[in-house]
Amino acid sequence: MNAAAALLTDGSVVTVRELGPDDVPALLELHRGLPVEDRYLRFFSTSPRQLEDFVERMISPDAPRHVVLGAFRENRLLGAASYVVVRETDFAEVALVVSHAEQTHGVGTLLLEHLASLARSRGVRRFTAEVLTINGRMLRVFTDMGLVTGIVPDGEVVYVELVLEPGDTYLDAMSARESVADVASLAHVLRPASIAVIGAGRSPESVGHAVLRNLLKGCFTGDLYAVNPHAKSVAGVDCYGSVSELPEAPELAVLCVPAKAVPAVAEECGRRGVKALVVISSGVDAEELLKAVRARGMRLVGPNCLGVSTSAPGVRMNATFAADRTLAGGIGVATQSGGIAIGVQEELRRLGLGLSNLVSTGDKLDISSNDLLMWWEHDQDTRIIALYLESFGNPRKFARLARRVAAAKPVLAIRAATSEAGQRAAASHTASTATPSVTRDALFRQAGVIAVDSVPELTDAVMALSWQPLPSGRSVAVLSNAGGLGVLAADACMRQGLHVAELGDKTRTALAELVPTTASLHNPVDTTAVVDEETFARCLDIIGADPAVDAVITVTVPTALGDPTAGVHNVDGKPVLAVRTGQTERLAGEVPCYAEPARAAAALARLVERAEWLARPREFARLSRMDLDAARALVADRDGWLPPDEVVSLLNAFGLPVLGGTLTTTVEHAVAAQQAYDCPVALKAVADDLLHKSKGGGVELGVTDAGAVAEAFRAFQERFGDRLRGVFVQPMATGGRELLVGVVTDEKFGPLVVTGLGGVDTDLLDDRAAALAPLSTADADDLLHGFRTAGHVLADADEEAVRDVLLRVAELAGALPEVVELDINPLLLTETGCVVVDARVRVAPAQPSDPFLRRLRTT
């Protein structure tokens, strides 16, 4: 395995790598340094015999069944984890040793995580261990992993078994450990006790000068230093010639030096003991910078970034070169673009909304949105999170993190250009759907991330989320003193998928007693232009009390007869959003006010979106009738489209309802197959480069006798010649509507499951829904009803049976990374079930991958 950098629970960085013969002295030193008690717990003896021979055997190249990983901090071995494969089995005996001084920092757990990941990639399925009963600390390490399936005491020894399949329990436990470590390391960036600005220029127009000035203006609470070999002081702060000349090692260094100097300055910072860097400079040699950062165990923001800020009273840090100060508040912002960061900050500041943190990740060589989600999850000052992402470094980890964080705090993201992940020449119907935007939007939707398309949309949604409760449904009432604008508001609500509420008789009667007879008492309610603010306020109370109303949008304009805007106020338990043409602000009582009806309707739709996502069930179904071993054997070491009989076997291994059939290679064989089925059959040519059989003339339906079978077979031979590999004979499936179900797997995002209109017309309408695996039951329901023609396709269908198919297809895709494309078309739906009539599967050798493993970027 390649060396990996990772965080311990105290936030320090270690390197994890496989040990070799050159590491014998370090491994011996580790064992010899153990106190007597630790040595006894490790070897069941205080004086292990022939320790040198034992260590040399562990990492001998002549013992390929032995694997040892070590964790290093600046070339010092802190601990080692090893396994030995039991001969001709898929399980291994595991052992662990950690320096006594490091046993409370998570070294052992981190090593076991990496060892389990490496073992899985090499075909090991289980770990076993023998632990002394008195060794409670080691038993906790094993049980806290989230993999333990068996603990059997036997006298003084406990036998532990760990199944290495990474289920939700394990992934949740690993993610929780990662959060603890990440938060500890990010404290050096977001809550530093001291900062040095390196490259603080004397010119007020220089970036370094601006950063230093902002730190001074913001009243940073810690120690502040400036580094400039050509000045005695900058902005009143004493200067030092280099980092090494500083009176103490600053916790955070902000680098504003020329790009070519950055790696050397970073290395100098590391030697001095700096814990974290913010690199403002652009055009930096990324490889050299990251090499210096990792070698010295530092965290890094940037390069090519605006900087970072924290508004907490105990910190008050504005280490950016933004023109204006950061207003204190509860919104955490992370953005790859410095311009977007400034735009969001300025717009929120204008509305009186402040930030808890602003992090401009720039080229994000190290710290990314994933790290910041973990910080904000635990930060009590942050109530709402806003992101601008141009690319995803680890989208699968992001999805799990965002789903967990969004359950407690709103997470918003501005949609931006997605990386090339997912773009490929598509051979199947499913793959043609998997554009970057489809994949990204599926990730956001399932993770509970509220996606918007612009800075104004973001701030509109943040206003509503900051000041108003979530609605209990989609029914909206519009109250206006200008009828035309009220109609526009109602139309805007309908475009956003909201419902215009039907007001009750009691509500209309109460309104009639307040407003002129020319008023409209039906939703949208038009009070006419003559009502005053007190009357408007009473109308709002009446409408808000109607049980059919979940939210209210008010639209007001000033007239010569009065301005009822001051009558807009909060209604208990229901969101109220105001519209006043040309005005975006906060009204009295924290009612958000928008410049036009469409913006208010869009913001309300984001509140509804969050409420509905929070109400979704989170269950992941437990599926039976699956044979993973048989499925893995079918796809192992294969490359290309599977023949139809193997496709049937693969789908059967996951309990999918497959029609089945017989692959034949001669006319006689085909005739025999038809006669055995004793019913009309479909004949499907299996030929090279024939993916869409119907379009390519490779299907004959309703064949009823031996003569017709022979004629169709020979027609295929003539049509496809040497390309023909056989003819698949299937009994005809009749009745029901047709659905497309498919999978396309992306290296970064994982499997994308697609549904839509099936049959020969699937490409004509391009009507599909998509979701990323794994699928919860709610995700499966969204897929089932998420395409335009779903109502037609699912009419009279057994939805429970179709949902089961979607969940099983997602399980197949998740369990078999070798499956890169799968097309079920059609899945035939009936009132009593469904059946897979035709399917294609393309496989390719899968590179070992573990997107959830705890590690930092090293290249």
From TrEMBL:
Pfam families: Acetyltransf_1 (PF00583), ATP-grasp_5 (PF13549), CoA_binding_2 (PF13380), Ligase_CoA_2 (PF19045), Succ_CoA_lig (PF13607). The keyword Transferase applies. SUPFAM superfamilies: Acyl-CoA N-acyltransferases (Nat), Glutathione synthetase ATP-binding domain-like, NAD(P)-binding Rossmann-fold domains, Succinyl-CoA synthetase domains. SMART domains: CoA_binding. GO terms for molecular function: acetate-CoA ligase (ADP-forming) activity; acyltransferase activity, transferring groups other than amino-acyl groups; ATP binding; metal ion binding. The keyword Zinc does not apply. Residues 14-165 form the N-acetyltransferase domain. Gene3D superfamilies: 3.40.630.30, ATP-grasp fold, A domain (3.30.1490.20), ATP-grasp fold, B domain (3.30.470.20), NAD(P)-binding Rossmann-like Domain (3.40.50.720), Succinyl-CoA synthetase domains (3.40.50.261). Residues 648-857 form the ATP-grasp domain. PROSITE patterns: ATP_GRASP (PS50975), GNAT (PS51186). Keywords: ATP-binding, Ligase, Nucleotide-binding, Transferase. This is GNAT family N-acetyltransferase. It comes from Lentzea alba. The lineage of its organism: Bacteria, Bacillati, Actinomycetota, Actinomycetes, Pseudonocardiales.
